[in-house]
Amino acid sequence: MLAAYITHIDCQKHEMGNHHPECPERLGAVNDQLLIKGLLDYMEQLDAPLATQEQLARAHSPSYLNEFAEIAQQVPENRHVQIDPDTSINEFSYQAALRAAGAAVLAANLVASGQAPVAFCNIRPPGHHAERSNAGGFCFFNNVAVGIRHAIAHHGIERIALIDFDVHHGNGSEDILFDDPHVLMCSIFEKNLYPFCGDVPMGANMVNVGLPTRSGSEAFRQAVSEVWMPALEKFQPEMIFISAGFDAHREDDMGNLALVEADYEWVTKQIVMIAQRYSHGRIVSCLEGGYDLSSLGRSVAAHVRVLIGAD
Ligand SMILES: [Zn+2]
Questions:
Q1: pLDDT by residue (tens digit) across 1-23?
Q2: C-alpha dist (Å) from residue 199 to 170, 298, 304
Q3: In angstroms, what is the span from residue 247 Cα to ligand 1's centroid?
Q4: pTM (2 decimals)?
């Protein structure tokens, strides 16, 4: 039984203009490193399906889904429509967003049913800034929230942990999941950085740790060990989703937490340990941020190597 590697060529057609950091090349940078390091030999590659409206509606409001579909489907060829100051769509964005959310659903199906031990989704657009009724921060559909809600609704999973180590707080995931008794969300992020929230959690199921700029590896690991791990031990998740963003890497200009590949390797080991203890090893990891192509590829490889047990 191989780990699942889920991606789709449609995810590369969405782009937000020249020099936008959330660029199509990100997926290739990830794929190249997984290939070069031999990790794809341990994984079964699958095409992401399109998420259905029913699946999306578990995380997003009907009015938002209708409005976004309407705007997205009317984008003229070779043009961009601005959604917020940093986020825009082209004619392929809607299809790409459906594939990214669909990847999380397929991953949930494979891992919850035991057809794959773990899954990594190499997808874009990312999702963790997409709120129930708002796109933003390069995100349109909240991929992990759609996957989590599918695992709960379709597979009857009672307790799911969402772990978000992107340098930015997953405000969209918090907005969707803060009152969900089936979910515990753990987020570590850089303070005073987009989306400028998270310091005050929206609900009791939110474990948010804001770290000061240039905190570095030690402070990050300490927050994981002292705050996340006790909460995860207490919650005993039956399945774990990861919002895997790699923009806290010291080579990435988007943030300043100064992490390195070894930190992503280490935090993945902690998550795998929890998953083996409580969740039958079941983990679904979805790509979020990470904008320096070289460190993104290397960091994902370090993460996936531990995730699939190839280390
Ligand atoms: Zn980010």
A1: 899 999 999 999 999 999 999 99
A2: 12, 30, 29
A3: 6
A4: 0.98
